[in-house]
Amino acid sequence: MITLDQLSPLGIGTSRVASLGSRLAPDFFESFLIKATEKGINLIDTSDYYGSGDSERLIAKTLKKTGLPFFVITKAGLPRVNTPGWLSPLNQIGKKIKQKTGAKKNYTSAYLIDSIQKSNKRLNVDTADALLLHEPVWDDIADADSWNGLAKVRQQGLARYTGVSTNDYRVVEEGIRSGQVQLVQTSTAWQADGNYPILDLCRRHNIPAIGNNVLQPYKALQGKFAQESAIIQKMDGLTDMSLPQFLIASMLSAKKVDVVLFGTSDMAHLQHNMASLRYVSSLRTSLSKINQLLS
Predict the structure, then answer these.
(1) Is 231 left (phi over 0), alpha (psi -120 to 50) or beta?
(2) For residue 66, what are the CA distances in angstroms to 28, 29, 270?
(3) I want to staple 78 with a disulfide (CB 3.0 to 4.6 A). Which of 49, 85, 167, 203 is the partner?
């Protein structure tokens, strides 16, 4: 059983692996996860929203077949439709209809308990490794009993850990104060000034932080990185480092996050991103200079 202090520095996001237009074949997903474990990756991030539950089903099927050791995070709160497995192709259509008709997010205690019970069934487990509130902002939970719901989730043995996936500082702050947040996921795209209030808050309270959307600055930085690449790649230990590898390794090098989460359905991209780890230690002495070059 993997604990929070044993999480790998890289994690696999699954927002697209079971979605319409990007659905992965079970055999490919199996080989994908096997390759990830070869590099020590032990974290999978999913949600009842991803593929309207089909992502959770695919993960369960693969882990049951392979016995691979993974810590699986699931999330709840976004509007979704979850019909029985044989009707699951209708989920995506139903979800889009709900979105267009203005279906709201839901973080009430009763909803969270119902959601994690259904997620656990799809994941083929009695107890999830972790349940996070999925993208709440303060107005979503100000009048809800969300923290009480997370407490009940753990009390009833439905998840070992609870937390939030959000970019709203107040949600994280109140969640930590409630005692129901043991894990935080948040956007951590590269910034030259290195200013990340949510990550600093997590660090002060010894709450593990998972960074998502780390590759978001790629397009904006592509030209500048290419312009400065000759200088960057001459720095000690940074030969052949690409921009995606820099964006991933820089967050780990600065010790801002405990885990960097990335999603891909391409085996070559998976291997390329995993190779980012080779640059983490070298970046610690060069990061400030590279930040100046790219700012």
Answers:
(1) alpha
(2) 13, 11, 19
(3) 49
| Cβ partners under 8 Å of residue 178, min gap 6 | 147, 150, 151
Reduce the DSSP state of residue 292 to 3 states and report it.
helix
Q: How many CB atoms lie within 10 A of CB 69?
A: 11
Dihedral over Cα of 259, 139, 127, 179: its sign: positive
What pLDDT does residue 198 have? 96
Within 10 A of 22 (CB to CB), how many other CB atoms are there? 12
Report d(CA 278, CA 272) in Å as an integer: 11
Copy the structure tokens of residue 180.
């129901």
Burial 38-47 (b: 16+ CB within 10 A, else e): eeebbbbbbb
Chain centroid to CA 99:
22
How are beta strands 71-76 and 209-212 bridged, if at all? unpaired
- Give the type of residue at 174: E
pLDDT tens-digit readout, 121-175 = 999 999 999 999 999 999 999 999 999 999 999 999 999 999 999 999 999 999 9
Per residue in 122-132, is it b (16+ CB within 10 Å) or e — as a string?
bbebeebbbbb
Helices (H), 101-186: 109-123, 138-141, 146-155, 169-178
